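Lay summary. Proteins are chains of building blocks that fold into shapes, and those shapes determine what they do. In this project we predict the shape from the chain. Here is one chain we studied, written as its sequence of building blocks.
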Amino acid sequence: MDTSIDPFSDFYPYSCGLWKKRHPIPKDKPSVGSFEDLSEANLLELKRIVDSCVANPSRYKNGRLIAALYGSFMDTKRIERLAFKPIEPMMDKASSLERMAQLPSLISELSRMGSWSFMGMYSAEDEKNSSVYALHISQGGINLPDRDYYLQDRFSGIRAEYVRHMARMFRLYGFSQAEADSSALAIMKLETRLARASRSSTELRDSIKNYNKMSVAAALRRYANLGISTIYEGLYVRDPDYIIVGQPEFFDKLDKIFTSEKIETVRAYLQWNILNDYSSMLHDAAVTEHFDFFGRKLIGQKEMRPRWKRGIGLVSSMLGEALGEIYVKEDFGEEAKRKALSLVKGLQSSFRKRLESVDWMDASTRRKALDKLDSMTLKVGYPKKFRNYSKLRMEGSNLLENFEAAYNFELKRDMSRVGKKVDREEWDMNAYTVNAYYNPSKNEIVIPAGIFQPPFFDKSIDQAVNYGGIGGVIGHEMTHGFDDQGSRYDKHGNLREWWTKDDRKRFNSRSAKVASLYGSMDALQGIKVNGKLTLGENIADLGGIHIAYDALKSSMGSKGMGKRIGSFTEEQRFFIAWAQIWKNNTTEDLKKLLVTSDPHSPAHVRGSLPVLTHERFEDAFAEKSKLKLPKEKYNNISLW
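And here is the predicted shape, written in a compact code that computers can read:
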């Protein structure tokens, strides 16, 4: 804390100011904060597990797989010796494309190896029939972080650097300078066409507009040139009953691109995607060039992360549940899980009381809202069952072969379940992840074991700090079931309207006030927060802090909230703890990226605005301030 700052003048630096001064951004990261610090601590534990697997592969059930993948990534002598040879067969396939009619089959083949082009294709719950997995296709094909990077003037410098980066990568691979330059310019034009056809990040938040169910026959007629059936059949999908198209107008334009783009440009584009997707697993020259653009120039990261950290990251992305199964056995026992679940249920009870007292909701909608909350599945710590990797084989020290084996194993598991019953025990985060999520199609909140550590949770410190930390995070995730998008799903996870028309109007009116207030906040100099893009997360932050505060108050019982530690009351410690979980320092380049595409508000806004709009803030900190009133006076705008 920086107590030289008045809490009524600027609450965020009051709560986090000295930390921000004393924690410069590490050279090998673009940001530092509560989430990053704990993730780094967990990374050391994962390294201990991986090193143990390398030393004794038979010690754990999946130890051999972990050891093989990590060991092949760390075999730098072999990687340097091979240089680009591991991807030459893929590059040759791309360069052999002669007719656009061959493209769907080639897209499918390269996608099986981990290099996607033009579109996304995946299985997920059918949002209107959440008991089955459906085949989804979505816009894709661009390699910069967001479509706005291709379209807005403020990113013109990045676009120029991107073209130069592509040319340098092609030169490294062996293209002549003329070939490299012309290919890079052509690819930039193609990706810009894809960007213009794409919806914005804000538009992509709309669950209803992103649900466009088509029969297979209708999709094949409408997008006759895309060869969609050839692509999904090559990706292990057999005879789907229908396809859910995320952005139909994107595929209309992509269909025209498939008939109008030069074959030479498409070949170069496929080759570029291969180079880009695999560069982190190639020799040092390719890795360094990739980092120079995507790390240094795009997000302001000064140095590459140590190789062992990148290796753990690869294992985590490919074998996350294998790592998680070992992690929870050694770091998160049943007692910790029981305590965590008890905390979650207390917060659920707090939220229930708030729903019961909301004055703008009529009895019909309230009854269904309470039913949805009571039906919400709570997953805490780790899955009941971990993934079965018994059919996955990885042998030897060939990194790309090991990667492709792991990638294909997961792809086949994911895509072959289209049309089958949804597995409601499955998790979408690893047990050691420092985060949490709400899944609207399953109406569930998932809080991994990894986040149940300081500064979010510590059983040895007082309740006020725990409720301001992990309590606020859990309350946030619960509120997602009732934010502007989550509220569109019923208790079973189906996308349908269960509100009365008048209640939906009142909800939208209150949501507009949230979007307006957040949209008035500075994200960085000269750029405001996108209140519409961040609306769901902002509603969840506001709800989360209220739910956690009420739960803390309830846990105090007859004792009340007057106990002090040092000079701080429980109320004060709660609000300070909330601000401190969002303490963060971030490079300016990453801030520009995040304000463009991240549905979360910047850390300083998340750490302050939910506190400043809370009805108890002014009374709680009046004794700590030399001012009579807060510098900025805000009304309580929380919907919940």
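What the prediction tells us: The radius of gyration is 25 Å.
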